């Protein structure tokens, strides 16, 4: 069936009103959860074919996050969907006002390759909970997982309600031209610009979950042992192919050497002496991305790692020492297992340096100082982040997840997913028992004087 036809069918189905029922939405969320449970082994296998990831890492980073989002919606949907009563100004005497949470209609979800299941189905759970119909465009790069997503949705949901369209970049452009009521995109900043440009032609609102170079700052008073462990975990899970992974580390010169030694020790403990042969360590998704990452190491000082295998598309966890700020590795998002480590002397100068760079999706600060926490977190703009850890803010459904500036617009997770896929419709109802004619012509100067006194 053509893209144009399915878009029209979904629009017609939405206007039949079936998706408006909270009971209907809950049933669809339960169906999605049961379907995922039934396909857990298939998901692990598909992700392993795409990335070589371990079953544990796949469950934690792909499957569990979707379950968490679905469970949140099932628990809170009735409250989220309920119209919200608000106060009415005295001037509108004998009126009552409320905010209704309307589904947007038909939405397009364009998901990336790095977490192909989680970043497709987590926003889908929000779209379902909000009462929408949806088309999912998974990434063609993670082909095995994308094919499984298509199978799961196609076999369990009517295409006029939920459907999946696989294909190359031209498929995405064709989808965007259909005039969906919302487009939710996760991916690179460069592709996000193209998405926004095409969407603007049909005035399609967009949520852009992008990336950027997420800094990690380690101060002289930080718990260096825990910092090393948590930085390594956050950076090298999924072989660094994580949009909120620490992109580079800025560490005070007084503890830089010790931090490097500890990170090297943690890397050996996590991945052994031969990380390219470790089953817990993922590989790079394609040759194109592999070649780009290998190229980033050219002319850089390698502190640790640097080994790679073209046969398996694997690159060892690699530490890069003090790269130049103008070098390629410091001017583009790394999105792989390369970690530049740069020393600094002044936290004030470091903050000023970061202020001059594009706003990142994430920021991480390791310190025990309340003064540093207040100063650094209050001085920098970023999507979200952590103090004394990495990545974990993503998993808190009570907080919005999203970027700012170059790293995106809009957010989701939990209540914020529901808000993203709904329109807050304001409604005021006025009594018909009587009418106060003060607002009608001919206007009285006395009434105007009275209004001015009320200001």
UniProtKB/TrEMBL annotation:
Record-level GO cellular component terms: cytoplasm
Organism of this sequence: Alkalibacterium thalassium
Keywords, ordered alphabetically: NAD, Oxidoreductase
Catalytic residues as annotated in Swiss-Prot or TrEMBL: 209, 243
Annotated InterPro entries: Ald_DH/histidinol_DH, Ald_DH_C, Ald_DH_CS_CYS, Ald_DH_CS_GLU, Ald_DH_N, Aldehyde_DH_dom, Aldehyde_DH_NAD(P)
The name this protein goes by in its record: Aldehyde dehydrogenase
Gene Ontology MF terms: aldehyde dehydrogenase (NAD+) activity
GO BP: aldehyde metabolic process
């Amino acid at each position: 069936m053509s893209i144009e036809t399915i878009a029209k069918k979904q629009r017609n189905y939405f206007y039949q009103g079936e998706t408006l029922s909270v009971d209907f939405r809950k049933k669809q969320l339960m169906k999605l959860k049961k379907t995922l449970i039934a396909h857990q082994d298939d998901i692990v296998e598909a992700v392993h074919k795409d990335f070589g990831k371990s079953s544990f890492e796949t469950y934690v980073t792909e499957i569990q996050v979707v379950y968490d989002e679905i469970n949140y919606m099932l628990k809170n949907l009735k409250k989220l969907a309920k119209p919200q009563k608000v106060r009415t100004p005295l001037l509108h005497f004998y009126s009552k006002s409320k905010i209704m949470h309307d589904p947007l209609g038909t939405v397009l979800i364009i998901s990336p390759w790095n977490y192909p299941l989680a970043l497709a189905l987590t926003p889908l759970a929000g779209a379902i909970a909000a009462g929408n119909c949806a088309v999912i465009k998974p990434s063609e790069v993670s082909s095995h997982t994308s094919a499984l997503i298509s199978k799961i949705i196609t076999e369990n949901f009517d295409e006029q309600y939920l459907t999946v369209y696989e294909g190359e970049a031209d498929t995405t452009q064709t989808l965007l031209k259909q005039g969906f009521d919302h487009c939710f995109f996760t991916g690179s900043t460069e592709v996000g610009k193209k998405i926004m440009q095409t969407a603007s032609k049909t005035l399609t609102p967009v949520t852009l979950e992008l990336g950027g170079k997420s800094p990690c700052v380690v101060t002289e008073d930080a718990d260096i042992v825990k910092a090393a462990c948590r930085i390594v975990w956050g950076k090298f899970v999924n072989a660094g192919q994580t949009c909120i992974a620490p992109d580079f580390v800025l560490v005070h010169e007084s503890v830089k050497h010790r931090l490097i030694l500890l990170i090297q020790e943690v890397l050996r403990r996590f991945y052994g002496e031969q990380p390219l042969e470790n089953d817990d360590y993922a590989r790079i998704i394609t040759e194109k991305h592999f070649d780009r990452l290998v190229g980033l190491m050219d002319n850089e000082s390698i502190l640790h790692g640097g080994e790679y295998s073209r046969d398996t598309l694997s690159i060892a966890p690699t530490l890069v020492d003090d790269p130049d700020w103008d070098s390629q590795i410091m001017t583009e998002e790394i999105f792989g297992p390369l970690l530049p480590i740069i020393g600094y002397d002044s936290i004030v100068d470091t903050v000023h340096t970061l202020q001059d760079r594009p706003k990142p999706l994430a920021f991480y600060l390791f310190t025990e100082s309340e003064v540093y926490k207040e100063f650094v977190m209050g001085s920098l703009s970023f999507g979200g982040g952590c103090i004394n850890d990495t990545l974990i803010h993503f998993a808190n459904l009570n907080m919005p997840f999203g970027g700012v500036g170059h790293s995106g617009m809009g957010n989701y997770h939990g209540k914020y997913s529901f808000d993203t896929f709904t329109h807050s419709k304001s409604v005021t109802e006025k009594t018909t028992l009587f009418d106060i004619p003060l607002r009608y012509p001919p206007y009285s100067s006395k009434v105007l004087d009275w209004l001015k006194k009320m200001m």
